[in-house]
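Posting here for the record, re: iron/sulfur cluster.
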Amino acid sequence: MIFRIFEKKELRSLFEILAAHNKIVGPVETGRDKDKNPVYAFAEVSDFNSIKLNYTTTKLPAKRYFLPFQEDLSTFRIKDGNWQKTIDYNAKEPLIFFGLHACDINALNKLDKVLLHSVYPTPYYAAKRKNMFIIGIDCVPQPFCFCRSMGSDTALHGFDMFITDLGAKYFVEILTDTAYNFLKNIKTEEPKEKDHVLYMKTTAERNKKFTAQVETTDLAKILDMEFQADVWKQWGDKCLACGTCSNVCPTCYCYGVEETVNIDLKGARKTKSLYSCNLIDFAEVAGGHNFRPERHTRLKYRYYHKHRGFVEAFEESLCVGCGRCGQACLAGINVPEVIASVRGGKIK
Amino acid sequence: MKPKLKFTDVTTQPPDTQRRKNDLSSFEYTHRAEITSVYPLTDMETIYRIQIIDPEERRRFKFVPGQFVMLEMPGIGEAPFSISSSPSIHGEVELCIRKAGNLTNFLSKVGRGAHVGIRGPFGTGFPMEEMRGQNILLIAGGLGLVPLRSPIAYVQENRSHFKEVNIIYGTKSPAHLLFQYQYEVWSKDDINLNIIVEKTDPAWKGSVGLITESLLKILTGRDSEFYHNTYAIVCGPPVMFKFVCNMLNKFHVPMQKMFVSLERRMHCGMGKCCRCNVGSTYTCLKGPVFDYWTVMNLKEAI
Ligand SMILES: Cc1cc2nc3c(=O)[nH]c(=O)nc-3n(C[C@H](O)[C@H](O)[C@H](O)COP(=O)(O)OP(=O)(O)OC[C@H]3O[C@@H](n4cnc5c(N)ncnc54)[C@H](O)[C@@H]3O)c2cc1C
Ligand code: SF4
Ligand code: SF4
Ligand code: FES
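Prediction output follows.
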């Protein structure tokens, strides 16, 4: 790993050099919530001033840039009752992500495991993922995020460079040669011992700010034992089966496919749309039989996929602890409380 | 002057497109195929013979009994169907399809010569090689005979490699019996074909009752060596699995030698859409064929 350190104003220069020839996506403020707190989102930016590097968690993850909510898997030309298929991976241009938090980088790493490094890689995802340059940035822990419990509070890979705010300067961790080459264009220095000390002090301070927790010891086993637990029914009674939790989740990738014929009958398309296992027909098969007809069985399934099935397959959970689902859920269902209740705690 | 810093060119061809050429069952790789024959079995089920058009692809398209393909009618839909023909025929599959919804209804109006897409083969199959030298029990209920037609063909083509072979097939009534024209052929070569219907009609001369009754007759009075050296393949409605597998279990047929095929909604066939998830497993990747021991350990499997 290569470390450098640079003056804060240099980051603006880096941004401007990159923005001149690339499309940049970063966190921006889109408004205020009812308590007057800023609301953030990932959006395309061309002006350094509109990027809010000290942003809290965005409402929606950056997912739509690599797993669009809807995309055509293939299109067909229909002529004289015959057809011709065209596949487009929909990777239109390379993207630079300017300021992703560790949890969101880890979410990408987890998605990579299923969508890139498994038996059948998903070329649509791969094409977009290959064309990304990621600048990570340290976050300010929020009261609802439990990324530390999920081991996602720091990112070890999955980015090109990662910056940490040391007050007067930025500390940067360089992972790829692309990042190394970009950084040649701004003024950076070799960090000195005092910078290392400052870095360690800064991260230690940050670590103290993580408050929410999920106890993950033996969780996969406990979930197996508590499959029939009453708490699932109690959560199910609250759940509105709206699917919002999956929508805002940076690691939810389940989808459905639909085929439609164009209105002029000259073409057809096969469209993939992200879906949620909390929606009623998720496990319905032709003929109308539904394997998970009750809300609690579907809610439970979402937890089992993330904290049990994925663990079995990849030895880690499919949750980075960003807390978005809990923040967005209208019924107030959040991971720390659900897991605590499965482990024998009371439901508030 | 500041250097022009442009971040990479767009790679619209990810590395795995190379795989597409080598691995016929990779993402979105659809074989163009032609429906070469349409044979109605009942007013609900029809057998379609489907042949891959490209000769090179046809030569390389191989499958094992129990696997399925995703059949696509562009613009209408795509759905999984078990291959119901002999694995010794390459590049051509027979699917027996029941009218159930959009795609299958549309298909029933399409005739010979139409072009469809097929992806696959996907999923696990029955371990036919491993079963060699053993007794075979093929047990089907209703539409469950469709996926069993492929292992039946395999067993028949390799009859000398198996010991005692029993087929049990049960339906609601004689009118529901599928593939009647093949029964004569199936009961040749020292294969014991037992057909049983729940409700009889005046013309029916065969057995009446439940599948488990036929099974009980076959199982009673054997020695432990028979039970231990028997492989069972069970396909049918979920209730049937339970009763049949319980009975086999009672006679100490090892649970890892009992195979079932599970049904789920499938949109990708490659472990990506999660629609076919059962417990901690994808039916499309680790199944649809599972041994009963695994199924017992999956939550909500049946
Ligand atoms: C491994 C396996 C093997 C099978 N083998 C056979 C076989 O040999 N023979 C046979 O007849 N059947 C078989 N089936 C069942 C067969 O796949 C279904 O009956 C088939 O999906 C019916 O397709 P359809 O388009 O007619 O039905 P539809 O119910 O109309 O579904 C068509 C498609 O439309 C979409 N859709 C429809 N309704 C909904 C909804 N409510 N929500 C979301 N999407 C929806 C889905 O994309 C779906 O795939 C098998 C299934 C599996 C899993
Ligand atoms: S848990 Fe909350 S967000 Fe998710 S489906 Fe239920 S009500 Fe909607
Ligand atoms: S499940 Fe909730 S906390 Fe976990 S990654 Fe998804 S949105 Fe974040
Ligand atoms: S069919 Fe998509 S995951 Fe199995």
